[in-house]
Specification:
Layout: H1 7-48
Length: about 55
């Protein structure tokens, strides 16, 4: 036997990788939401502008 398995370490590594992946996904979602919000607010103001007569 080359080495003893360390289940606790392996589990903590898997959990760490899962957390990093979830954090990255959340960050991307927030960035996309912020960019949509910025673009949407400028489009809304352009549509709501009343032309002067």
């Amino acid at each position: 036997m080359a080495f003893r398995t360390n289940y606790r370490f392996e589990r903590s590594e898997r959990d760490r990788q899962k957390k990093a992946k979830k954090d990255e996904k959340l960050k991307r979602q927030q960035e996309r939401a912020a960019s949509r919000q910025d673009n949407g607010s400028t489009e809304q103001t352009e549509k709501n502008e009343v032309p002067e007569v």
